Amino acid sequence: MKILIADDSRVMRQIVIRTLRQAGYDDHDIVEAEDGADALAKVSSEQPDLVLSDWNMPNMTGIECLQALRASGSAVPFGFVTSEGSAEMREKAANAGALFLIAKPFTEDTFKEHLDGVIA
Amino acid sequence: MTTTDTGERRRASDTRPVITDLIDEATVESIAAEAWVALVGEDEVLVPLPGDLPADILSSWVDVVGPWTGSVVLTTGRATAEELSRALLREHAPEVLDDEDVADAFGEIANVVGGNVKAALPGPSALSLPQVGNAPLVRNQADVCRLDVLWRGEPVAISVQGALPPLPGSTPTRKNEVS
Predict the structure, then answer these.
(1) Burial classification of residue B7, based on how many CB atoms lie within 10 Å of its CB (0-12 exposed, 13-18 middle, 19 or more buried)
(2) How far is residue B33's CA from residue A79's CA, in Å, rounded to a whole number?
(3) Residue B69 sits at the chain A interface (C-beta within 8 Å)
(4) Which portions of chain B are predicted below pLDDT 50?
(5) Which residues does A58 contact at the CB level (< 8 Å), separation at least 6?
(6) Separation between Cα atoms, residue A120 and residue A77, nearest integer Å
(7) ipTM value of the model?
(8) Is 3.30.70.1520 the CATH number for B24-162?
(9) CB spacing of A11 vs B105 below 8 angstroms
(10) d(CA A118, CA B12)
(11) What distance lies between CA A94 and its chain's CA centroid?
């Protein structure tokens, strides 16, 4: 399985990768994107099986990326990993077609809770 | 017909909350403690004690714009900001950290703390991308919720501070950076 991780923070991408491994998802291919525009391009070029994306990013936000993906006909499973976990953001994410929203700070248990069933 | 501006309508619409009406230190402390454990490390605790910040300090912050507008600012010694960055990077930390590494890691802590502070405030609000450098000025002492903690014995100040000056007629303010 190929997982695309989009976050403008390199440190946070590493923390997401580390947490995936700690949660037991350690034998998957990881592709990194540094903003929403990069993620959009890499969904097309890399054909990931899952996108884990930050919300607030320069160039193109995570929600704009998701909306662009759905508008282009892509149904790639998409989840947010973001510091903003308010009810309002969760509703926006769900309405745009996100499977889940993991709020930062997260633990390996948070990842397991949201990703079991999504990652084979 | 001319009308006289009595100021009544302006005064009625000028009421706005200050941060201490919306969030308390205990909530900020809880948010920061959770961020530290998740990002910095499981055994990393914040001790709620004030300490003297060194002369060479660095701040990271995010801005919140909404019914309450201001910044969530972390300030610590530059050396402590570097130590925090190393803790986040763990085995990926290079031998010599460059400014970009510190800006990324220290900014991300402000982003996580700020995002959770934003979620505790009335919305809808927008959150900026994190910035690192000299903290925004405190423009209204009455619109500040500040928490002083020690991490590994080093002082860290967490300030949730309004961006706007006090309204006319309210308590006078003094300009003061986090120090």
Answers:
(1) exposed
(2) 25
(3) no
(4) 1-2, 7-10, 12-13, 173-176, 179
(5) A8, A35, B129
(6) 13
(7) 0.91
(8) no
(9) yes
(10) 52
(11) 13
Cα–Cα distances in angstroms (integers) from residue A118 to residues A25, A76, A114, B64, B140, in the given order: 11, 11, 8, 33, 48
Q: Two tokens at A17?
A: 């990768």
Joined tokens for residue B40: 């910095």
Chain B: nearest CA to A67, how far in angstroms?
19
Assigned token pair, B59: 């701040």
Mutation target vs B (from A17, A104, A106; most B CBs, 10 A cutoff): A104
Domains, chain A, in order of start with CATH, read 2-115 (3.40.50.2300)
Tell me the chain A residues in contact with residue B119 when contact means C-beta distances shorter than 8 Å.
84-86, 103
- Which pLDDT tens digit goes with each residue over A45-93? 999 999 999 999 999 999 999 999 999 999 999 999 999 888 889 999 9
Contact assessment for residue A102 and residue A114, using Cβ atoms and an 8 Å cutoff = yes
Report the relative pairing of strands A50-53 and A2-6 from DSSP bridges.
parallel
Token couple for A15:
């923390």
Q: Are B96 and B86 in contact (CB under 8 A)?
A: no
Is the CB of residue A24 less than 8 Å from the CB of residue A112? yes
A68 to chain B nearest CA, in Å? 21
Q: In what order do the strands lie in the sheet with A2-6?
A: A29-33, A2-6, A50-53, A78-82, A100-103
| Cα gap B140→B138, rounded to integer Å | 6
CA distance B52 to chain A (A): 28
The kind and range of the H/E element at A70 are helix A62-71
- pLDDT for residue A91: 94
Contacts of A82 (CB under 8 A, 6+ apart): A54, A55, A56, A62, A89, A101, A102, A103, A104, B115
